[in-house]
Amino acid sequence: MSEHSTARRSDENVNWWKTNQGIAVVLTTLFVALLGYLVSRPDTFTPLRDGFLVGFFPMASTGLCILFSLIMLVDHLRKEEMPDYALLDWKFFGFVIIAIAWAGIFFWLLVQVGYVITTPFYLFGLIYALGLRPAMSAFLAAVVISGVILAIFWIIGAPMPLGPEWLMEKWGLPVL
To answer: b/e per residue, 69-89, with b = 16+ CB within 10 A?
Structure first.
C-alpha cells in the first residue's frame, strides 16, 4: 500500500460531494461557466498590438482548468476522499462567499473612495478573517502591506486612484 493511499478514505460511506469526483464536478461547472462568460464578452476577442487577443490568456487558463477538472472526474483516485475535504461544510462555503463579496465591495469602494482609505480596511478584514490576532496586529499588517503596494505602484509609475475623484480634482492631483 502506498504512502498516499493511507491519507485518503475510499470506503462506501464517503459523501460523494467530498470525493475527488464530486469536487471535480463543481470545479468543471464553475470553470465552464467562467469560460462561457469570457466568450460572451465582446472585448475578449479584441486584438492587441502583439497579435494576442485580450481574452487569450484568461480563456487558455480556464480551458486548462476545465481539462484538469475533467481528468479528476475519471482518474483512479476519483472515488477517494482527501482528509481536507472532510472539513468542507456550509460554514466554509459561507466564508468563501463572504470573502468574494468583501472583494467586490473593496473594488467598488476603491473607485468611489480611493486606495488610501479603502485598502487598509479591506486588508484588515481579510487578514483578520484568515486568523491573524490580535486585531491591532492585523490592522498594522494591513497598513504596512497597503504602504508597500502603494510604494511599488509609485516606483513603477503606475496610476492609482488615491482618493475620491472630487478630492483629487480639488487638490490638483491626476484622476484616473
So the answer is: beebeeeeeebbbbeebeebe
SS3 77: coil
Tell me the three cell numbers of residue 58. Answer: 484568461
Which residues does 141 contact at the CB level (< 8 Å), separation at least 6? 123, 127, 132
Torsion, Cα of 22, 28, 33, 39 (10° steps): 180
102-117 confidence digits (pLDDT tens):
999 999 998 888 898 9
C-alpha cell at 36: 462561457
pLDDT for 10-23, tens place per residue? 455 558 777 888 88
Instruction: Name beta bridge partners: 87.
Output: none
Its pTM stands at: 0.59
